[in-house]
Design a protein that fits this description.
It is a single chain. This protein is α/β, with parallel strands linked by helices. It has one domain. It is 36% helix and 19% strand. The protein contains 5 helices and 6 strands. Strands 1-2-3-6-4-5 form a 6-stranded mixed beta sheet, covered by helices on one side. A hairpin with a 2-residue loop joins strand 1 and strand 2. The longest helix is centred in the C-terminal third of the chain and has 19 residues. The chain is globular, with a radius of gyration of 15 Å. The two termini are 15 Å apart.
Length: 149
């Protein structure tokens, strides 16, 4: 695979760093609202919000891992408020938070495993949200690692 490809709300990422598997894993990253019905095609379901989604029982959400450590800070989340004009700056600040949290990012990568991973978010905004930004971050960092190798 020459690099990551995007398919709708998915990215295919060649990801040997996730489990240091010598054959090189392929992880399909998807995003989905946590309020949507869980599906077997979701694969591993990882919630990427700092706060648990309102009114949603944990048994209904079927979250495999709650990645609070890599969710945007409360300060950043409150500043952004899903205002589209702030999206570029939100991404920049969120990526800086992720860069400053290598332990949290490493934990997330170890939780991803193999196959499909669905990054869950609670926002009503389906395009410009933390899950989309995180998928972009992981894909870009993987490309950068591959180009250095």
């Amino acid at each position: 695979m020459a690099g990551a490809r995007r398919l709708g709300n998915e990215s295919l990422v060649s990801a040997p760093q996730l489990r240091r598997d010598p054959v090189g894993l392929v992880v399909r990253l998807r995003t989905k609202r946590v309020y949507e019905e869980p599906s077997p095609s979701d694969g591993r379901r990882i919630l990427i919000d700092r706060l648990w989604p309102r009114g949603l029982a944990k048994t209904v959400a079927k979250v495999d891992f709650w990645a609070k450590a890599v969710a945007p800070s409360n300060q950043l989340r409150q500043w952004y408020r899903h205002e589209p004009a702030k999206w570029p700056e939100f991404r920049r600040r969120y990526f800086a938070e992720l860069d400053a949290n290598p332990g949290g990012v490493a934990e997330l990568r170890s939780q991803c495993g193999r196959g499909t991973v669905t990054i869950l978010f609670g926002s009503k905004e389906t395009r410009l949200n933390n899950a989309t930004a995180l998928r972009e971050y992981l894909t870009a960092r993987r490309k950068a690692q591959r180009s250095r190798a």
